[in-house]
Design a protein that fits this description.
homodimer; alpha/beta; Rossmann fold; Arc Repressor Mutant, subunit A; 6-stranded parallel sheet; DNA-binding; CheY-like_superfamily (chains A, B); phosphoprotein (chains A, B)
DNA sequence: CGGCAGCCATGACATCTGTCATACGCCACT
DNA sequence: AGTGGCGTATGACAGATGTCATGGCTGCCG
């Protein structure tokens, strides 16, 4: 039989991370050789442990799993990348694919799919929930410009226009213009809704 | 040796739930006898499987783990309750304790603490992160009235005053008054910040 | 080169939001 | 019986927010 598959697990919540490790540990052909809790530790760990497949949560301190995936893809293109996330947001799927992910799994899916996905990506297959893929295609690309996204993100904690203007070195009017166009593009009525919708779609 | 400890696992994300089950399955003295994905299925499952310890995630469809805990505590007071959550919000800890929980764990904690907590609550101990306990005490109780909470919750999706007034059968002025007092109590400057802070503290 | 998109800004306007004073009814506690 | 807290409501005011028209600057693409 072929040697075991070396897997890295990147997930910030220890309990979940170790539980997933226990789950994968039940598989004979899979070995979890490294665990990290931060996105910015992924690349070094992948390199150090000669990892075959990296399992990356999206929401992590340091940097997101998607950014980490892009880093690994650039430096070590032969490593397979599985992105794992709580939220099945179409925009996340899109960004993950653009970052070079081989699989995209939501934590809602049955646990069996995890080991399954690891084996499949190693065999050169791609693993994507078809429902999500359809949603991602149906929704189209992110309509927001970089600046609009940045300002929306900054506004998401309830900052006022004056604070945003100061923080971003803009005039208040400019901030309002950006927010206004973002509100129109997202077809909503105020910044709070705009933030919510953009979040839901994974556009923030 | 005593018979195995019968545990119920309530957590909406299958992958996490099954991973936690795998983790607990590694312990000789613990047996996961039931798994549910919704808060409103907890009570029936606990009853049916003669569960010793119920492990409850807070964020679940149906009803929250805290509400489920309260139900179990009322009907089957001898069952031990462990509340498990992603967010270490002091307000959550407080509500969990008021609902009769025996332990409160955050998913950030090392996985070993899970089995540990199961054994301890069965022995009659309480398990609470001392840092969180201190934070919960330092922060004081939720200053918001029922109505203020309700309106803040309704406002959290970006609804306008007119929509809130219609949805809650109130006058617009009343809605604004409630939001205004909530804003003052939370010492913030607008509804968006109020929603954010109340969420963070677990007061929503 | 010309056009278009993105970035930045201003001013004016309408509307929404947050504050304050005030008031009434209800309920619980003293 | 009085007090205080909560829920509800109104009206008035100031300030924040969203929209629109308009303009200048840059850089990319055809």
């Amino acid at each position: 039989m072929s040697p075991t598959i070396k897997v890295l697990l990147a997930e910030d919540q220890s309990m979940v991370r170790e539980a997933l490790a226990a789950l994968l540990g039940l598989e004979d052909d899979i070995e979890v050789v490294a665990q990290v809790a931060r996105g910015d530790e992924v690349l070094a760990a992948v390199r150090e442990h000669a990892v075959d497949v990296a399992l990356l949560d999206i929401e992590m301190p340091g940097c997101t799993g998607i950014e980490a995936a892009a880093q690994v893809r650039r430096s070590l293109p032969e490593v397979k990348l599985v992105v794992l996330t709580t939220f099945g947001r179409p925009g996340y799927l899109r960004s993950a694919m653009e970052a070079g992910a081989d699989a995209f799994l939501v934590k809602d899916a049955p646990a069996a799919q995890l080991a399954e996905a690891v084996r499949k990506v190693l065999a050169g297959e791609r693993v994507i929930d078809p429902t999500l893929a359809a949603a991602a295609l149906a929704e189209g690309a992110n309509p927001l410009t970089d600046r609009e996204r940045e300002i929306l993100r900054a506004a998401s904690d309830g900052s006022t226009n004056a604070e945003l203007a100061k923080a971003l070195h803009l005039s208040q009017g400019t901030v309002r213009n950006y927010l206004s166009t973002a509100i129109q593009k997202l077809a909503v009525r105020n910044r709070a809704e705009a933030v919510r919708i953009a979040r839901e779609k994974g556009w923030l």
